[in-house]
Amino acid sequence: MTEITRDVVIVGAGAAGLTAANELKKAGLSVAVLEARDRVGGRLWTDTIDGAMLEIGGQWISPDQTALIETVADLGLDTFSRYREGDSVYVGPDGVAHRFTGEMFPVSPETEQVIAEITERLDAMVAEIDPDRPWAHEKAAEWDRISWDAWLRQQTDDDEAVRNLAFATGSAMLTKPTHAMSLLQSLLMAASAGSYSHLVDADFILDKRVVGGLQQVPILLAERLGADVFLNQPVRTIDWSDAGATVISDGMTVHARQVILALAPVLYPRIGFVPPLPRLQHQMHQHISMGFVIKVHAVYDRPFWREQGLSGTAFSPYELSHEAYDNTNHGDERGTLVGFVSDLHADGVFELSADERKERILESLSHYYGPEAKNPVVYYESDWGSEEWTRGAYAASFDLGGLSRYGAHLREPVGPIRFACSDLAGAGYQHVDGAIRMGRLVASQIVDGVRA
User: Fold this and answer.
1) Is 207 helix (H, G, I), strand (E, B) or coil?
2) Is residue 170 pLDDT above 90, yes or no?
């Protein structure tokens, strides 16, 4: 077994861990990054499936994600805008596809008014939330006791309005049933993007992509670290004291003064800590869980929907695939659609055979785009729930009451151990931008501690 000594050992080679490692190395500290998988990137994964390049994990960049934008520029990567020319599609409770332009779904004037009023109310509430300290709001405990769905239904008895308002942070972002997350957790999700309005604006939140795929960010960050990144090294034990730690993986032992856990908090229990983590961490980590969403990739011989004057953008809280977009790669003659099947719907379709699941999902896409959507040349489902070192998607969030009870302790160091990942971020929460921000933050704290 290899045995080495470093100033800092980082567990996890996603955007957070690799950002931290690069910042620490720039400051003159020695590092080792241990990654359980056979690749870097974590929840970023660009792969070629049946000859088609697919973004299996995260992929979009929005204008507020300045840390990610800076990193993309620093790495010399190019971006391109998501295709959005033409009409969007909304399927309402009547099951009919309605074409529309602009941000508002084609609902009745009464429902539109309700959505506008509640959105304004939510924007005002979100403006009071510090995404780094949502638990500090005077109403945090109150807002954390009520579910997102229950709060919305207190505001209106318009079911269509509730479903459309709810799915923006529920199925679409936190990927949990809206009765299973709190109002406060939903407000944090919106605050991390700047406002609730930003979160529901697809042209804002899903603005640009990286030419060649977003996994290039961690790949290039890892290249800068060279031999300091070790793959296929799942960490089994961390033996720690205030003086430092010994981190033991399947193939190596690393002695270090500091440790950064740069992986989703649902994976902390996979590591044995000697001595055990404090009681608070044991309790807190049991109240955090991953959401679950299937990302569906359907590649066609051409982007046929554009011929119909459609942008590819589609929404419906009544459809199996609650949202879908034109995901055609830069310079590709073929057309790609990406759709999402979330929370309870995702559970349900995995009870079916693979063929029946594919048929059901493509049938749902056809409700937006017509019968041609049923016949892709390449079809692939990103199932992060089956990934041993992820166990869900997109990110981790608290159960009812958990954020106000434990949120303030999420980032607290334990001895030499610090925590950094997108699940712990304020701005950029559950996005690559948040991972980069957390990597920078923890690295700066370590550097400041060394220099103090």
Assistant:
1) coil
2) no
Task: Tell me the average pLDDT across 200-224.
Answer: 94
Amino acid occupying residue 93 = P
Q: Give Cα separations from 188 to 58, 136, 181 (angstroms).
A: 20, 12, 11
Confirm or deny that 100 is annotated as ligand binding.
Answer: no
pTM: 0.97
**Do 360 and 319 contact (CB within 8 A), yes or no?**
no
User: Is residue 105 part of an annotated ligand binding site?
Assistant: no
User: Is 40 annotated as a binding-site member?
Assistant: no
- Residue 266: DSSP 8-state: G
**Bridge partners of 210?**
79
Going by DSSP bridges, is the β-strand pair 396-398/60-61 parallel, antiparallel, or unpaired? unpaired
In a domain, 90, yes or no: no
**238 SS3 class:** strand
Token pair for 166: 């709810």
**Known binder of ligand: residue 217?**
no
pLDDT band for 452, please (50, 70, 90 cuts): low
Q: 297 and 361 in one domain?
A: yes
Average pLDDT, the chain: 96
Identify residue 216 by its one-letter amino acid code: Q
Q: How many domains does the chain have?
A: 3
User: Domain range holding 437?
Assistant: 2-43+215-277+414-451
